[in-house]
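Q: Fold this one first, please.
A: Sequence and structure below.
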Amino acid sequence: LDCYEIAKSLHEATRNEEIEPIAWGTEREKVFYTLKAALLSAPALGPPDYSKPFRLYCDEAKGVAKGVLVQALGPHERPVAYFSSTLDPVTKGTPFCIRAIAAAAEMVEKTRTIVLGHPLTVCVPHKVEILLLLMDNRSKTF
């Protein structure tokens, strides 16, 4: 589910500096209903259960940080919240492993109002592990 990509044209339509009605044609209508269907097909969000630890899955693609905060529900995981945000232009220009770390940091920050300091495990792509393994332990530089 990539709601950011689906809704991108709708976001851009609202960024006009002048206050004027949005031109609502068949293309925007199609995007709206595609987004609505995608949101309705996503797993239902559950309320946070502070007796259980949280898990955050996050990734970055095309300069967009994405994450889903989940908790165990029986043998499965139930989503508690979905997050996404565009990385800043400087971060977008960095290598993929740095973007992945920035995306994870951004997603952790967004979960703070839900997690409230309770245990949180962050799950990131292998590219972050590669970067950490390449770091020099003495100086923490690359």
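Q: Good. Now the second chain.
A: Here it is, same layout.
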Amino acid sequence: MAPALFQSWALVNEFLLLFALYRLNNMAVLATMAATSQQQLRFKGGKKGKKSSGKGGGGAKLGRPTFETERCPVPLDALQDKYHGQLQHLLNEYATIRTGEVTPNLLDGVKVKMGDATFALSQAGMVSVKNTDTLIVTTFDSDTAKAAYEAVVDANIAPNPVRDDLVIRIQMPKLTKEYREQVVKRAKEMLEQTKNKMRHLRSHAVSQLKGTEGLSEDDTHAMQEYLDAINTHFVAQADEMYEKKADHISNPQ
């Protein structure tokens, strides 16, 4: 009985070892696939600067560079991360624009200042929805309530917020045609601010490129064209975000 038992345990251990190796191999394959997918997302196929056809195509497609990226004095991955950051900032700002019933995230952009500290309104108290047009902020103490109320007034989200001790009541404007037009205009201003920041990123990158010695004229030209393509790619995405937001504001579901 004992030898047979030991033999069975040996078979079990061998099976567990093979299964573990199988799992590790699959994890390595998945990691490789993820890295490949990320690289493909960073360099989408298509000609530089050419806009895609059809709705929801993601704007201008970004092709692969025609030069050795290691020779480029501008860190392209870091540059694209900065552009992504600008898109994310615009997305966060658009989340604070009302297109239908009120939600707590309409107050995400409100920053409260107390002494040397600045923090989100959601950290000053609990934000809740009272009805389809009213938000309630319940703060923790009178000092925080005062600072939070001043932040709401300064943010100009609603015309007449009301403070009652620790509670702030925010009556949002009715979604009239005139109000929607004003909000679309505000969204457009946010877009232009984002595009200006993107143009600054491009300008800084081009200055860095032109200030580098030892590059051939062809390489410099190809690199600057690619910097332009990066800018075009992300500006097109920002434009598309605005078009979608403006449509949601003007034509709520």
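Q: Anything worth noting on the second one?
A: Confidence is low (pLDDT under 50) at residues 1-9, 15-58.
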